[in-house]
Structures
1.
Amino acid sequence: MSNFWQRILTAAVAIPILYAIFRIGGILYLLFILALIMVGQIEFGKLLRSRNYPEQKVSGMVFSLLLAVSAYLGYFYFMTTFTAAVVLVLIFELRGGREGGKVVRAGITIFGIVYLGWLLSHAVLLRNIGDIKPVAEYALNSQGLKDPGFFFIFFTVACTFLNDTGAYFTGLRIGKRKLAPEISPGKTVEGTIGGIIACILTGIIVNYGFGSPLSSDWTIAFSLLIAVSAVFGDLVESAIKRGAGIKDTGDIVPGHGGVLDRFDSLIFVFPVSYYFVLTYYISSGAIGG
């Protein structure tokens, strides 16, 4: 089966499942994010082994998973866990052994925690943004949203996936000028522009489908920010793979590669979306008003 049809089949199976997980939320959604982080950490270990870098210890996996759980409990617990993770890794990794090896191992472990644990855990914060009482009240009374977390997570993921899809097909058909050939030879300027357009159109359609809870300017700004963040997320993951000398981080997602290959854009998009949404509610007077 060609890569194209693998992508189509994967999307046909995955979209209804993801929609159900996003809609239900709660523990099921948390378990989904925990699974992404865990598989991502396994793939990250594969990248390290490919270049004989010192592998991060179990602490990298444990703290990354704890960050998602703490995000489920609330932002205070999330930031406290992150601070504790960095401090404890530095304390334990920098003991004994050769100086250079200690610093490299500590840096690798903290990078894994930040890249996979801290950034991806913002997906939990975004889905649970309705747990903030003023946000829930404003969303219901002014936006007509009973579950703002579902709207924003659906908006974010739909825009990101359609941005990737738009960039892929536009680049395939008319892509000529390379965007960053030294990092990602296949990514083109034309494909990137096509992805941004697809992302904005998707944002407008999704917003309309939910009864237009966001104004047009906020919708376009949100979509544009997602598109730009997705590009940077993709380039960062490509740079990591290029440094490791491998094409795909895994084969768990048919037609797409591993978790890091499929969700690379979202790793950057989730935190950017979360803080954008917070900014929206602050500027609207729902928070701190």
Note: The two ends are 56 Å apart (CA to CA).
2.
Amino acid sequence: GLLVFNVIPLLAAFALGFTDYSFTAETHWIGLTNYRVFLFEDPLFWKAMRNTFYYTAVSVGLSVVLGLLLALALHQHLKGTRLFRSVYFLPVVASTAAVSLVWGLLLEPNFGLVNYLLGLIGIPGPGWTQSLTWAMPALILVTVWKTVGYNMVIFLAGLQDIPQEVREAARIDGANGWRETIQIVLPLLSPTTFFVIVISLITSFQVFDYIYVMTQGNPAYETLTLSYYIYQVGFQYFRMGEASALSYILFAVVFLLTLVQFGLQRRWVQYQ
């Protein structure tokens, strides 16, 4: 199964990236032409690249920070924490397509609930997914809402793995809650943080569902990302050779970023 459904398609896509393969014409070997066109002649590719980096940087940053803060709050063993853990994790198990559809209705600028509630307090609601300014922030809002619960659970697991005797020793030495968190908890939690950041970055660069359901890359390509551009080129324009090349450009970007993260981990990740 791994060979048939993963390895062979990956190799086939790599080979097709050097051709002009489509469903409607004869296939020819064209070498690096597809890569050259995207990198040096296609302004839409660079717009999709910028959008992807913007989406990834903001959504991953917010999701990781909020997930960590929620985990620290729910790790206090206060009354009702189990209920809140379940509530925050519920969006994670929901279908991404369903979440995108519901949020698309909530953020509809004319009759959506969000703008209605903003109007009740005197704030004019923006156009959200129909606005050049607010379309990408709307997607980021939905992404963070959907993913923060997953990061919270991973951080909670990391917090539970920290030896209690280390924290107790810090308290005996006079460390208050803030100093204990900064000097003990966060350094010992750095391997978990590293894992969450790597997984979140890889996932964010492959974002597709939210865009397909909510914006289709609009307005004016302001929400066009590399993954959705691959879909457009391959399955809307039927230029499968170009789509294959574009998919390997995306793979190269994610691979290089992951290598950089593994190279930098030695500077800030502290293993017990």
Note: Residues 84 and 189 are 22 Å apart (CA to CA).
3.
Amino acid sequence: MSNHQKRDFLFLHIRDLPYFRALIRAVESEYYQDLDLPSPTLDVGCGDGHFAQLTFDRKLDVGLDPWHRPIHEAGTRNVYDLLVEADAAKSPFPDGHFASAISNSVLEHIPHVEAVLTEAGRVLRAGAPFVFCVPNHQFLANLSVARFFDKVGMKFLARTYRTFFNNISRHYHCDPPDVWEKRLDLAGFELVRWWHYFSPQALRVLEWGHYFGLPSLIVHVLTRKWNIAPTRWNLYFTERFLRKYASAEPVDDGAYTFYIARKR
């Protein structure tokens, strides 16, 4: 059995993150295990490097992110050969420098996403895979509070709640595959494969986790840690509750989409 098959991504993520973020990241970590990502690899929007540290068996070649504090935290994890603090629409690399690229739950947060995709196309070699995941058009539609307001005919409150939750999630793009396919095509990519994941039930856990997770936020502000005791015994009930939602199986009504594209 390979190392990735032995890894319990759910526990690894809930040990370090708020449980609702750990749930979605654990599912996404699974998807990378069977992907061929030849070196050099670019991580577009690497953040603090936590996801790469848990997901990959090797160091990635370059992590790129515009935010000062997270990228300096990534430097303490020793998971990238090189870290670059820069806008992903203006990367300091020559044409065709990279053999693969990833962007995990990042592109939805970037207003100028088309420019970022164009730049990714510029720095990737012909035939290079570009792998990313984002929330889709079913994310807002399946929010439980909004669905309740829909059901009782309070459409204005449903729209208001969806706008509120989108804002606190810092989402600029929750789009279906055909929209991403057009963006990719304009940036010089062919969309090879995609699938939806993260069921409406799992989305409810994530949604309500934003509210039930407030004590963890207080702990984080005071200690810079999300969990004071990241042990199996302390996280036993959390892990047991989340386990049934942490499925990596594709689902038609999933709130997120995983994409595999290739540079033309």
Note: The radius of gyration is 18 Å.
